[in-house]
């Protein structure tokens, strides 16, 4: 699905407030990353340093640190669990995060602790487009411009 110029695949689960997503897998893990709108709001990423494999993360708490043009920002996790993998491509090409946010720009994979509890704050399916539009309006973003 594309709402204006910002894609947000409806099969993903979004923590809208922090503009991060989770792709839930059948094996009890989720791949996580930053939304296209989140990239638009923050700008290009020059460095991405995810938490290490084995580290416990909490929903809404840092799973990575990214360096932007003028700041360093914590990326919040959309889900709670244990980091089981980090994207090896980002060490040499951190720009994948903003060039392909839902594909090769993923940040980490997490073994889920309690997805049912995490779901209370996540948006999924048809509710995604209006939630993204409302969030963008908070930042006065024109969704019709790329």
Q: Record the strand order, biggest sheet.
A: 7-10-11-5-4-3-12
Shape: globular
Report the major sheet: 7 strands, antiparallel
Number of strands: 12
Overall description:
The protein has four helices and twelve strands. 18% of the residues lie in helices and 33% in strands. It has helices at residues 36-42, 96-99, 115-118, 128-138; strands at residues 2-3, 6-7, 13-15, 20-24, 29-34, 47-50, 56-57, 62-67, 72-76, 81-86, 108-112, 123-124. Strands 7-10-11-5-4-3-12 form a seven-stranded antiparallel sheet. The chain has a three-stranded antiparallel sheet with strand order 6-8-9, with no helix packed on it. Strands 1-2 form a two-stranded antiparallel ribbon. It starts with a strand and ends in an 8-residue tail after the last helix. A hairpin with a 2-residue loop joins strand 1 (2-3) and strand 2. The chain is an alpha+beta fold.
Labels describing this entry:
146 residues, alpha+beta, seven-stranded antiparallel sheet, three-stranded antiparallel sheet, 33% strand, globular
Provide a quick synopsis of the model.
This protein is α+β, with helices and mostly antiparallel strands and 146 residues long. The protein contains 4 helices and 12 strands, in the order βββββαβββββαβαβα.
Layout: helices, strands, pairs:
Elements: E1 2-3, E2 6-7, E3 13-15, E4 20-24, E5 29-34, H1 36-42, E6 47-50, E7 56-57, E8 62-67, E9 72-76, E10 81-86, H2 96-99, E11 108-112, H3 115-118, E12 123-124, H4 128-138
Antiparallel strand pairs: 1-2, 3-4, 3-12, 4-5, 5-11, 6-8, 7-10, 8-9, 10-11
């Amino acid at each position: 699905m594309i709402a204006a110029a910002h894609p947000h695949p409806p099969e993903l689960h979004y923590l809208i407030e922090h503009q991060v997503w989770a792709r839930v897998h059948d094996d009890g893990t989720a791949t996580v990353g930053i939304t296209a709108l989140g990239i638009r709001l923050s700008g290009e990423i020059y460095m991405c340093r995810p938490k290490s494999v084995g580290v416990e993360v909490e929903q809404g708490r840092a799973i990575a640190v990214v360096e932007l043009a003028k700041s360093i920002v914590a990326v919040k996790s959309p889900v709670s669990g244990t980091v089981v993998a980090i994207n090896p491509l980002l060490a040499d090409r951190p720009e994948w995060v903003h060039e392909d946010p839902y594909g090769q720009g993923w940040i980490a994979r997490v073994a889920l602790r309690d997805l049912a509890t995490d779901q209370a704050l996540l948006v999924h399916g048809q509710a995604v487009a209006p939630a993204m539009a409302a969030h963008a309006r908070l930042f006065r973003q024109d969704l019709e411009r790329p």
